[in-house]
From TrEMBL:
ATP-binding listed as a keyword: no
Protein name per the record: Lipoprotein
Originating species: Ralstonia mojiangensis
Region spans: Disordered: 27-50, 441-461
Superkingdom of the organism of origin: Bacteria
Amino acid sequence: MNIRWGRLASSAAVLLALVSCGGGGDGAAPGQQGNDAPPVAGAPSQPPQSTATCSEVAQYGITFTFDHAYACGTFANGDHWIAPDAAGGVVTITAISPAYTGTRNGFEVNPAHVDRQGFDSRSEGFDPTLVPALPYAARGGESVVKSISLVDSPAGRTFLDSAAVLTVLGAIPPEGGANLFRPPYFGADKPLIPLTRVHTERLPKLAPVDYAPSLDDIASRFARVQLDHMNDWTGADIHPVQNLPDYGAQVAEDTADAGLRLMLADSLQAKLPALIGYLQYGIDLAAARHGGLQFAANGGHRIGRKVVLAFAAELLDDADIAALVHDAPYNTYQEDGDLHFSPVANQVLWGAPCSTDDYWFNQNTTRGSRDCRDPYDRIDGGQTPGGEYQFCCTTKPLVATALILHLMPHLQCLWNNPDLIAYADRWVNFGAWTQPDPYAPHGNGALDTDPSDKTGRYPALHGTSRNDGYYSSRFADAMWVAYRAGAAATLCP
């Protein structure tokens, strides 16, 4: 831990040497202070550090052992790299502990599947053919992702305790890698992205509010690899408990809180460890998205990732990541799939894509999917509007995410869907939407015999649950109160 934080402090010093600080704050939102200027082209860098050699490297309880000492170092986030003795050579890994048992403590090289994994046989999609035999001759451009399995019963959904990434590079990286993001662990493409690509001037510098988490807490939350590359809700099976939550709603609360916390008026040096971890998550998600990863609406499981990608696209000025956000088909991300504008109700309604039969099966039996949208486009969906997944697990994180779009208005164009902002305002100011509704309760589409009496399906729920719900953050609520009213107008339709 001391080594990792020391490396992050060094990275902060280098990045600070490459930026200048502005104090004008032109165009700042209410309560906003001046921003850091962009990296200065051609600014001098720190002198290269001497390269160490390692016969083994250890991180988070995982040890990689090699046949002899190779050049080694760490990236800006503290994850390790190693390089062969000569161009085109290999690094021979002789052991990885804790040892793979055939069913536990698995590892993969360049994970490339969104429906299979080699980490734990108890997890969905286990495929032992994805685990290479040792000794393993690793070549440049390979990420070795190693897990530690939980010994006993799962924690929540996951069967993993921890995971770490060792990156094999083809050569020693500039400045020993200290000023580079770790290449994405997923897939074969391993770009080396320098910290100087980060447009820190695009971060607001807002006056602090109550309940703000510490930057150390945010940095710790995103310090370890976010092993998050499996499709569907069973992807939580391989979320290591030491790395990230198993449940998407908690991921969403965390990612929204982190994005908002990075907007407060702390020094760049103080923010950098948290910012590196958050952007690293975006870099990893982007690689997995190219490999077929999606986060379609599914209860409370898949929410919270789109904002990380949008944040990374904006701060890294990365057109490739931006396209993964802006051009994604509808319901690639749960943040979109849970919402849609209804011209019938003239309102953004909550509910995931679902058949009419599935909707009424749930209404009449309380079984099946509990997040179906209303097939008649009149009211909020779900088993009961304003309840179940709308209340428990999605809406409050959506509100916090909408505030991020308000406070960094360029993200609204990148987001390419105005429904989130409209829905968040409606929930905070009014609550659930259930009127007018001409359909009879439990009627499989039958009309109410007397629509004028405002019976419908759930008339008593109209306007309930206003600004309420679980997976809420007192910090995000305080930020909303402080900054929503004075936020810039929506830039993009």
